[in-house]
Amino acid sequence: MNDPRRPAPIPLVLLTGFLGAGKTTLLNRMLRDPALAGAAVVVNELGEIGVDHLLVEHAEEGVVALAGGCLCCSLRGDLIVTLEELLKARDNGRIPPFDRLVLETTGLADPVPTLQTLTLHPYLAMRYRLAAVVAVVDAARGAETLAEHPEAARQVAMADRVLLSKTDVATPDERAATEGLIARLVPMAELRTAAHAPTAAIVAAVEAPERDLDAAPLGHGAIRSVSLESEAALTRGAYDLFVELLRSAHAPKLLRLKGLVRLADEPDRPLVVQGVRHVFAEPRFLDAWPDDDRRTRLVAIGENLEPDLLARLYAAFAGRPAADTADAAALTANPLAPRSGGLLG
Ligand SMILES: Nc1nc2c(ncn2[C@@H]2O[C@H](COP(=O)(O)OP(=O)(O)OP(=O)(O)O)[C@@H](O)[C@H]2O)c(=O)[nH]1
């Protein structure tokens, strides 16, 4: 599946977080860290100010600031051009061959369209691969912000890793409230303190979802996550069909699907799944499982997702329809059984 003639895709880390959360402060710290010397950074700034002086001080050709608009809407075209230009400059040797890219979005940006752009674009999807979505959340005002601003909640819901900033000024109550909301919104994400996390770990790729996830609604009609796991390997056909049905039936609600899949014909190499809305990056195999756990582990994130429906859909393809239920119940709850109110909602 991996073509040896193609250059290895460059890991891309999307750095998100609400206005004033502390993204630029964090980036500035990263750019001073020799461990990240090989990274390029793209900053999208809202407003007319343009180039962020902090970043320009610490990096040279690798920094491209997009001024004048929001990354997820008016500057989407420019984002593509910028990322292509960076590749061209890298391939021509005009800039150092950066080994990863950090893309900072504006504080109001919805990360979903940006991720879609990256996974949909044929050339960019071939040259970059999404390594992680990192969200910065202000420990002091996070709870308030997440509750009041749906944009902020969407940013956090998409994150693989959440970094708490301003822990130095947050009261214990404020911090606990912020952490509580983050845990409900995105229980699978790693939560770290921005000031203490090693910067290399912040932008490291996330290859395995966390385990023992509970679907956790934030509130009525809000974003929630659903985990899907199975011991048995899936056939490629079953996996493809599962994704196809998931996309066609749940696409309007589904913001993201990610994780590792164990396929019957490649049990020693996990297939990495990265989907944003109905767009799925071409799945790729890792060389090996990241740990001893070789189960398929998928996380679906979306608005008003129905965990039971998703679990039954997945179970049907994972070869264990309703395995946890009694026989009679298993039969009647079998999602493949022809009846009304089936899997496709
Ligand atoms: N006390 C404290 N202040 C912080 C911390 N991180 C960021 N700040 C301050 O918070 C303010 C906003 O930080 P930025 O890094 O500009 O935030 P941003 O997320 O890039 O903001 P936008 O550009 O609006 O999206 C600045 O005044 C920072 O100095 C922190 O950990 N502790």
Automatic annotation (TrEMBL):
Reaction catalysis annotation: GTP + H2O = GDP + phosphate + H(+)
Sample GO molecular function, one term: hydrolase activity
Keyword terms, alphabetized: ATP-binding, Chaperone, Hydrolase, Nucleotide-binding
Cross-referenced InterPro entries: CobW-likC_sf (IPR036627), CobW-like_C (IPR011629), CobW/HypB/UreG_nucleotide-bd (IPR003495), P-loop_NTPase (IPR027417), Zinc-reg_GTPase_activator (IPR051316)
GO cellular component assignments: cytoplasm
Pfam families linked: cobW (PF02492), CobW_C (PF07683)
Occurrences of domain CobW C-terminal (ranges): 223-318
Function: Zinc chaperone that directly transfers zinc cofactor to target proteins, thereby activating them. Zinc is transferred from the CXCC motif in the GTPase domain to the zinc binding site in target proteins in a process requiring GTP hydrolysis.
Similarity annotation: Belongs to the SIMIBI class G3E GTPase family. ZNG1 subfamily.
Protein name: ATP-binding protein
Gene source species: Methylopila turkensis
